[in-house]
TrEMBL record:
Keyword Ubl conjugation: no
Residues covered by the AMP-dependent synthetase/ligase domain: 26-420
Record InterPro entries: AMP-binding_CS, AMP-dep_synth/lig_dom, ANL_N_sf
Name under which the protein is recorded: AMP-dependent synthetase/ligase
Xref: Pfam families: AMP-binding, AMP-binding_C_3
Keywords: ATP-binding, Nucleotide-binding
Transmembrane segments: none
SUPFAM superfamilies: Acetyl-CoA synthetase-like
Keyword Nucleotide-binding: yes
Length: 595
């Protein structure tokens, strides 16, 4: 093994001296950035850890954290780990019943919430959770029974004065094989499963994933990174440990709708993201050209098309790129703050067109692959290498192989210890030889580059016997500026259909450009809207196999949401929920299938 067993605490500690900005992290609240110095951060971690100790938290206990991204989130995480306890992160979008299950199943001793609004989700049910002995509000509370973050800091500070050696003693007792976190998979089916990850799982994964990061902090005087993905997700959380290790402060945004303003004010060099954000940004960039006219418009779309055709193994002629860069790309890069080096994308498949475009305008965009159960990174493009459509190569210490049915199997030090209190589920996931069965379908090329097709459970068979992987088709559809979301259906039917949510904002702009009045009612039945979407579907169909083509679709007015249980907190489609909830629309697609 390249990386010796170590702890999360150790790699964070190593980063303090590498940080030359003096800032550990920052959070945006009410439109203002609040920066926290390294010294203040370390003191808060110390005080909070001892405050938790005073509340009775000991090594091996569980502490749950239900809050938005913030510096306090990072403090709480480090404080819990410092006393040898395990962190149980909870998405702010999870419903009360699910939170109750997580608290009971994990036997959480202390529960953190960000504010009363977040607490409201579990408030009616919290009395039934016997394990929770204290609830702490990060930003204060009107509820008398809730302790405040500041109160616990004060409690811990006093304990530190009484027993100055206690904090270091507790930290020194933390071992690499100790449980660091219990992360409950949101899951597209069934009850959430608690993924058990140790300090060594996560710390060694962070060190290995760091090898493929596309930037070197020494190249920048004041490097900063922007963050918007929830820290409850292992992708962003492991990234936070890498930022700490290399000494780069993360800036946590307030609202993803304002992220363009945040790019401008923070001027980050890097962002970890899921495909959807880049899809929306690229769509906006393309639509921007519609506001131009004449030669300016022609040059703009010439440059856009050049970027969309980008091939890292056969880049465009230098003179072409220089002209496109001067006229268009440099201005587009300014939308990201002007210093952006690159994006690492995970969580879902990235459309090759989006990857080509971002790389084509001069910003690195690499796709990685992994799961919560793998801490999470398994693959990524090695530095200086890229293959469009691939999720990269196995990172240090990871073994990959493809099972006979096409399932991706992985083995190595980053694989979870198992599912908490679910030995049977653990045995289903990890075989006797230590191979973790990912549930994803894919293949490795002759050079070891991984190509992921879809979730194994997402594949469906048409009545003709042909198998369809819906995700690549859906990714191609949402690459259109007029399609916001798409779910491909067709199991046991003769052909593929789709439920499509149009991008109503861009549709309204098109109506205005054409001089049409946008309909206030029955917009999914509007003839022009349907024809516009038909054109977009046909563009996608042109590149699909005969049996993959979307022959019919139904338009939906409202987006699929986390709150309605249609997508997971990581934006994965819950296909069983969609199939049940929109049964009427799906039945209509296949109404005269046999006639």
């Amino acid at each position: 093994m390249k990386y010796e067993p170590t702890t999360i605490l150790s790699i964070v500690e190593q980063g303090y001296e590498k940080n030359h900005t003096g800032i550990y992290s920052a959070v945006k609240r009410d439109g203002e950035w609040i920066e926290t110095s390294i010294d203040d951060f370390r003191q808060m971690v110390r005080d909070l850890a001892l405050g938790l100790y005073e509340l009775g938290v000991r090594k091996g206990d569980k502490v749950s954290l239900h809050a938005e991204n913030s510096t306090e989130w990072l403090v709480i995480d480090q404080a819990i780990l410092s006393v040898g306890a395990a962190v149980v992160p909870i998405y702010t979008t999870q419903p009360g019943e699910q939170i109750k299950y997580i608290l009971e199943n994990s036997e959480s001793k202390v529960h953190f919430v960000s504010n009363d609004e977040v607490f409201a989700e579990i408030k009616p049910l919290i009395k039934e959770v016997e394990s929770v002995k204290a609830i702490i509000s990060i930003l204060g509370s009107d509820h008398k029974k809730l302790r405040t973050f500041d109160d616990i800091l004060e409690l811990g500070h006093k304990k530190g004065e009484e027993d100055p050696a206690l904090f270091e003693k507790l930290r020194n007792e933390v071992e690499p094989e100790d449980l660091a976190t219990l992360i409950y998979t949101s899951g597209t089916t069934g009850v959430p499963k608690g993924v058990m990850l140790t300090h060594h799982n996560i710390a060694s994964n962070a060190l290995a994933a760091h090898e493929i990061f596309p930037f070197d902090t020494d190249d920048y005087e004041t490097p900063k990174v922007l963050s918007y993905l929830p820290l409850a997700h292992m992708f962003e959380r492991t990234a936070s440990y890498i930022y700490a290790y290399v000494g780069v402060p993360p800036y946590y945004i307030e609202d993803v709708e304002d992220i363009r303003d945040d790019f401008a004010s923070v001027k980050p060099i890097y962002l970890v993201t899921v495909p959807r954000l880049l899809e929306k940004i690229v769509t906006g960039i393309k639509v921007k050209g519609q506001e131009m006219s004449g030669l300016k418009k022609q040059l703009y779309y010439w440059a856009v098309n050049l970027a969309e055709e980008y091939d890292p193994e056969n880049p465009p002629a230098k003179w072409k790129w220089k002209i496109a860069d001067k006229l268009v790309y440099a201005k587009i890069r300014e939308l990201f703050g002007g210093r952006m080096v690159g994006f690492n994308v995970g969580g879902a498949a990235l459309s090759p067109n989006i990857a080509r475009f971002i790389n084509g305008i001069g910003i690195y965009c690499g796709l990685g692959y992994g799961l919560t159960e793998t801490s999470p990174v398994l693959t990524g493009p090695p530095k200086g290498e890229l293959r469009i459509g691939s999720s990269g190569k196995a990172i240090t210490d990871v073994e990959l192989k493809i099972a006979e049915d096409g399932e991706i199997l992985a083995r190595g030090p980053y694989i979870m210890k198992g599912y908490y209190k679910m030995p049977e589920k653990t045995d289903e996931a990890i075989d006797c030889e230590g191979w973790f069965h990912t549930g994803d379908i894919g293949h490795l090329d002759e050079d070891g580059w991984l190509f992921v097709t879809d979730r194994k459970k997402s594949l469906f068979k048409l009545s003709t016997g042909k198998y369809v992987a819906p995700q690549p088709i859906e990714n191609a559809l949402v690459n259109s500026g007029f399609i916001e979301q798409a779910v491909v259906v067709g199991s046991e039917h003769k052909f593929c259909g789709a439920l499509i949510v149009p991008n109503w904002e861009n549709m309204k702009k098109r109506f205005k450009t054409k001089g049409y009045e946008f309909p206030e009612e029955n917009i999914t039945e509007n003839e022009y809207v349907i024809k516009r979407i038909e054109k977009e579907v046909e563009k996608v169909n042109a590149d699909l196999s005969k049996w993959e083509k979307v022959k019919r679709f139904k338009l939906l007015e409202d987006q699929f949401t986390i709150e309605d249980g249609e997508i997971t907190p990581t934006l994965k489609v819950k296909r069983n929920v969609i199939n049940e909830k929109y049964k009427e629309q799906i039945d209509a697609i296949y109404a005269d299938e046999d006639t």
